[in-house]
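Margin note from the TA: students keep mixing up input and output lines. Inputs are the sequences; the output is the structure of the whole complex. Example:
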Amino acid sequence: MKLQSTKCRLFLGLSFLLAFATGFTNGKTHYHEFDIQPTAVNRLCKTQQIMTVNGQFPGPTLRVHNGDTLVIKVKNAGKYDISLHWHGVRQMRNPWADGPEYVTQCPIKPGGTYTYRFTIENQEGTLWWHAHSKWLRATVYGALIIYPKPGSSYPFPKPAREFPLILGEWWNRDPMQVLRQATITGAAPNVSDAYTINSQPGDLYGCSNKDTTIFPVAAGETILLRIINAALNQQLFFAIANHQMTVVEADAAYNKPFTTNVIMIAPGQTTNVLVTANQPQGRYYMAATAYASAPGVAFDNTTTTAILEYNSCKSKKGSPMKPILPQLPAWNDTNTANSFTAQFRGISTGKVPLEIDENLFFTINLGVINCARPSFRCQGPNNTRFTASMNNVSFVFPKKNSILQALYQNTPGVFTTDFPPVPPVQFDYTGNVSQQLWTPVRGTKLYKLKFGSHVQIILQNTNISAIEDHPMHLHGYHFFVVGSGKGNFDPKRDPANFNLVDPPVRNTVGTTPGGWVAIRFVADNPGVWLMHCHLDVHIGWGLAMAFLVENGVGKLNSIEAPPPMLPQC
Ligand SMILES: *[C@@H]1O[C@H](CO)[C@@H](O)[C@H](O)[C@H]1NC(C)=O
Ligand SMILES: *[C@@H]1O[C@H](CO)[C@@H](O)[C@H](O)[C@H]1NC(C)=O
Ligand SMILES: *[C@@H]1O[C@H](CO)[C@@H](O)[C@H](O)[C@H]1NC(C)=O
Ligand SMILES: *[C@@H]1O[C@H](CO)[C@@H](O)[C@H](O)[C@H]1NC(C)=O
Ligand SMILES: *[C@@H]1O[C@H](CO)[C@@H](O)[C@H](O)[C@H]1NC(C)=O
Ligand SMILES: *[C@@H]1O[C@H](CO)[C@@H](O)[C@H](O)[C@H]1NC(C)=O
Ligand SMILES: [Cu+2]
């Protein structure tokens, strides 16, 4: 007995030392195998082959606690190159696990394998994972739920039940073919045929009746919906008939709770809401439809539904009662979208940087490439090809290597570090922009940040070819959203109105159409980190850039060594 307890103490001491040395409290390690495979599914009266993980659509839900480690072995049994991104996970010093193809890794080729290994450090809430290769994320996505550390709890009463609620977008075609066609013609890609909730379009579409997603509740209880917008190209409004939602968390950061009838959620964002079943027993539609901010730009104007179903509401004869539809805002209701977003107030996720070392100003532009003469490849407006840029640089993803591998191996010729900190030309960004400014330059340009620097970025929406809300996502970080406004940012007047007290924390933020948004963060995570519009149609046109955050002093402030078996390009 005595011997055993000494051994035990020794073991405890050792594991404590180990945890201390690696900088983590010891969480659990979760092992998963993700097989990327073609899978036949039936939607909208049609059976179609799509790419999935393990044949599941949506893909597997990952459930972990803050402090846990994930080891995910990805095998590509599909026909396309692929990589996976763990959206919103900070990946401290570990950009190797971030996933965007040609940025932090070469894609996993058909038949290939790559193991992502990463630890959740000081994050809790709802995140998600998705393919980060071309348009594969249309069907390759799933929820990543991070519970508080064992022994700690949510900053709100524990809900009776929890559900992931993933909004998606469905084409009656292989999304890769939709992208391919647009890439050839230079025109905008076809809009989707349906939106989905947990991969089901719902019964407002033909032949989706029996497959509608049901969320069961018991009268009186409060449930937590972990809402994720996994749609490829569309911001969405979401509402539940006769029920209010209390927003408690977004992008894995808690906020001061507020109550609303409708939420607006952009691709890349997550929003956790509490819903109390305080209505007469019954069935209530939950519905999502487009918030399409750009006048004149085609969009999918259909509505997806799921059903909030009180347990005892099935009518005696067995045929369920017809649900009530919620009222959703008009597709162009920017005021509702903005006033929803404006309600977010953060609760302490670190300190807001007050002094700024890097004062950056990035324009977010659509644009066109003029063609010498009309051709099959120039089917954009007025015989052009669509393009997009930040600070007039249209981002080119390298092909021969990933940026991070090139950085690590010191391979020249893959990227440059001359991304401009401010627009090369100043103009009235949100006014009537001269067509001479519409065509950007192309390049793989990064912006270098010193480790630990305090960064502010003004993301300025522009009216180059169209005014549109772009949800901008930054990898490897979450950031404080300290301000936003209409028109052109005014560096003299606007900073006085910044919220430096309780700004919300996000990893994806909209740039209001014809306006600007200001974000701040501390560059404490060395690596190569992509920043891009989360409308995939715009990434393909070049609406992206990347940061190169330099190493700090010492091993614990430097990029870790790459894992074995990195895919090669
Ligand atoms: C796009 O839509 C057009 C018009 O409906 C159709 O002819 C074309 O086949 C579609 N292309 C793809 C790739 O879905
Ligand atoms: C949706 O689009 C279709 C086809 O363009 C159009 O006929 C219909 O009026 C639109 N509906 C709404 C609600 O905008
Ligand atoms: C939204 O579009 C409708 C036409 O569908 C139009 O009547 C209305 O004025 C628009 N609202 C805004 C705020 O632009
Ligand atoms: C169409 O393109 C031509 C040639 O580039 C240009 O002169 C003209 O202004 C353009 N018109 C519009 C409406 O964009
Ligand atoms: C945006 O530019 C277009 C011309 O491309 C112009 O017609 C429109 O008035 C501009 N919008 C604003 C708000 O100035
Ligand atoms: C972008 O650069 C191109 C090439 O120098 C130039 O023609 C265009 O006017 C620039 N546009 C802007 C918005 O800076
Ligand atoms: Cu965009």
